[in-house]
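Posting for a labmate who doesn't have an account.
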Amino acid sequence: MNPEEVKAAPEGLGGPVPLPFAHPWEYELHFPRDPRAPAITRVALRAVLAAHGLDELLDRAELLTSELTTNSVRHTRGPASVRLRWTCPVLRVSVSDTSPVFPMPLPQLPSEDAERGRGLAILELLADQWGGCCLDETLFGVAGKTIWFELRTDDGPTAPPSAPAIAA
């Protein structure tokens, strides 16, 4: 279905009309402290971005989201959430958890054989922008933090060649 068809589709016949590419949207996933949560989050992220025609952002968004959700599961004691927000041409992914401890960048990258410690360096290299803040209270009712990153599309405010159809 191309963007013109999305606009012309009659409302009420078989459900809502898909959002045009440049319209804003937001999705949020809450997950427990469970080692399966980062994989589940990656699947959900890929489904959302593919459904909205943002394939060019998939690989970077998946890697960065995986880094942040893995850290939330590994280094906190409570639940976490991931929020995806699209405001054309920027995708913002925010990961919130119940730890008020903000990750500190290492003075240098870890050795080549180190298994950990590259998360912020990867974020710095792949995100168009990133940041975070400590929170007095999160969605879960305790202190915590949010770390976010933004990725821009090359397309700008125009729609991709064809918007994906929504399966019924």
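Reply:
Got it, the structure tokens are right above this. The radius of gyration is 18 Å.
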